[in-house]
Write a structure and sequence with these properties.
6% of the residues lie in helices and 53% in strands. It is mostly beta strands. A 5-stranded antiparallel β-sheet has the order 15-22-21-18-19, covered by helices on one side. The protein has a 4-stranded antiparallel β-sheet with strand order 1-7-6-4. A 4-stranded antiparallel β-sheet has the order 11-10-13-14, with no helix packed on it. The chain is globular.
């Protein structure tokens, strides 16, 4: 743990300089690397329900909420306020293994009236280096404001904004919609691929992954000009970090992992420092074998749907579920054969949901929207 803690402090200190985790405060720099708390929320009168959107990279962390109204912190994500208003609500992740914690806070507007029938949701697509384009697909007759927050201090009120970050890497993006006194949000971590450099043209950095099952090797390309590279720091997207020239990692399970390489350099004769950072998302899949089954792709129709939704699955799928934005299962079925499986969502309220397919190789989710 000692070497990991020193490395994490080095990584966090370097990344903190470029404000990668600007929305999170942590007791120890290692928590800035391995614990990333976040939440979005819905309101119903004076009741607020928080949806934990945190990432812990497999660390055993406990979440506690403080609601900014003088009540004691609690592990309960639902809270009833005594009166409407604006409150600073915080989520703290703590882990006894690392003996540290990290906290995420945001302003929550508590109305007096019920907010049933409205739901915030967005979709996104790649828009180039360090950039994403977003689409507001919220459900409800919103006559009030729209607010995007991109996790780097910037915001927008556009319906279809495109945002470019100074740095690649993970950013927590949220969309808040209002209707009268009601306010609803949807938020998620966005892993932005791309590159950034304070060395300008003097330091080119990139890498190529070579995969075999859950193992991957990352061969860097580092081309210096008038600078001297002095440190290479890998972050593999599963909580592991390393300081070798050629990176390698054994991932815990299949899935998409964003791997980043940070190269620090000095520029003689003044010995000024600079860095280059590059991030690529790697799709990790296990080797097919007797006990290893590839995760089936998600093919869903119709989307949006009004009553039932069909999911086409390949062999290996074990269960299909539909979850609401708070992660609660609202429909589920056990898969007994491959092919088309139907989920009945006729009684569900309009809004956004997730289809979740569980296989021996892992879990995959895809968003769906229920219409009237």
């Amino acid at each position: 743990m000692s070497s990991l803690r020193k490395l994490a402090k080095h990584l966090a200190a370097a990344f903190a300089t470029i404000a990668l985790y600007g929305v999170i405060s942590a007791q120890d720099p290692i928590c800035s690397v391995l614990l990333r708390p976040a939440f979005h929320y819905t309101t119903d009168g004076l009741t607020v329900i928080l949806a934990d959107s945190s990432t812990t990279f497999g660390q055993n962390a406990t979440a506690s909420f403080s609601f900014g109204d003088g009540t004691s912190p609690t592990t309960d994500n639902a809270h009833q306020f005594q009166e409407p208003g604006n409150y600073t609500v915080c989520l703290t992740l703590s882990t006894p293994t690392l003996d540290c914690s990290a906290t995420f806070c945001r302003q929550v507007t508590v109305p007096m009236t019920s907010c049933g029938g409205i739901n915030a949701f967005f979709t996104l697509s790649d828009a180039g280096t360090n950039a994403m384009q977003f689409s507001d697909v919220s459900i409800g007759s919103f006559a009030g404001d729209r607010l995007w927050e991109f996790g780097d201090g910037d915001s927008s009120t556009e319906e279809f904004p495109t945002h470019t970050w100074l740095l690649p890497g993970p950013h927590f993006v949220s969309l808040t919609r209002t209707q009268g006194q009601c306010s609803v949000t949807y938020g998620r971590w966005i892993e932005v691929d791309g590159n950034a450099s304070t060395c300008g043209q003097d330091l080119f950095v990139d890498f190529e992954p070579a995969q075999e099952g859950l193992s991957a090797t990352f061969q860097p390309t580092i081309i210096p000009n008038n600078v001297i590279p002095v440190v290479e720091i890998w972050s593999y997207g599963d909580g592991d970090v390393d300081t070798v020239l050629t990176g390698s990692n054994e991932f815990p399970m299949s899935g998409n992992y964003q791997t980043c390489l940070l190269v620090g350099a000095i520029r003689p004769p003044a010995m000024d420092t600079c860095f280059s950072l590059v991030c690529h998302t790697v799709d990790v899949m296990p080797l097919a074998g007797v006990e290893e089954i590839p995760v089936a792709p998600l093919r869903i129709w119709p989307n949006p749907f009004t009553s039932v939704v069909f999911v086409s699955v390949d062999p290996g799928a074990e269960r299909i579920s539909m979850l609401d934005p708070l992660g609660r299962v609202v429909a589920t079925t056990t898969v007994t054969t491959h092919g088309n499986v139907m989920l009945d969502g006729q009684v569900l309220s309009t809004g956004s949901y997730f289809i979740e397919v569980t296989t021996a190789g892992g879990i995959r989710r895809s968003p769906v929207i229920k219409l009237e």
